[in-house]
Amino acid sequence: MDRQREWELSDWKRLGREFAARREEIGLTQVTAAQALGVSRSPIQAIERGRQSNGQPFTKVTQTMRAYAQLIGWTDSSPRLILDGQGPEPATHPVSEASVENRSDLPPAVDRELRSGKTIDHTVVHLGGGDDDDTRIIVVLKGAEGLNEEELDELWQKWRRTRRHLQAIPGETDTPQES
After folding, report:
1. Closest by alpha carbon to 142, among 126, 159, 125?
2. pTM flag (> 0.85)
3. Taking CA 82 as the corner, what is the angle to CA 77 and CA 86, rounded to the nearest 5 degrees?
4. Positive or negative: CA dihedral 153, 158, 164, 169
5. Where are the alpha helices (DSSP H) in the chain?
6. What whole-number distance in Å separates Cα of residue 87 and Cα of residue 138?
7. Distance in angstroms (rounded) separating the CA atoms of residues 68 and 45
8. What backbone phi and psi angles, to 5 degrees, belong to 124?
């Protein structure tokens, strides 16, 4: 059992070394990579070290790892491929640091999330009551690339329930209900 655990830890360390080598190869520092991803430097250091910031081993590929992979020109499935003993898969359209900066007025983490995964659905909930008040909540449902039909159906069912709750949010013109 200890031998199996050692092997798993070494895979995360190997993944970390691959990330660091690729980052350096394309001329990014840990700080610039973190800024481009909208995170602090700590998650980048942890990924490259092969251990979480609290010193515990990783147990799964995180969204930050997938986004980091895209930033350095890999597909978001590359971390899993490396952990499985393969090499990273080059992205057909790598995300350059320049394209990450000033892409929109959204916070970098939100912008990154919108660019990752497959868009499944969206909804807009208007909160304003006046003609000139355009306050709204925008929700975009994203899923991992390559979802199978069963996973997609389960996600869709959860989304339908959540969307109903969101659409029931009263706007300013709604009259509060008395109990």
Report:
1. 159
2. no
3. 105
4. negative
5. 2-25, 30-37, 41-49, 63-71, 78-83, 97-100, 108-115, 149-167
6. 37
7. 12
8. -125, 125
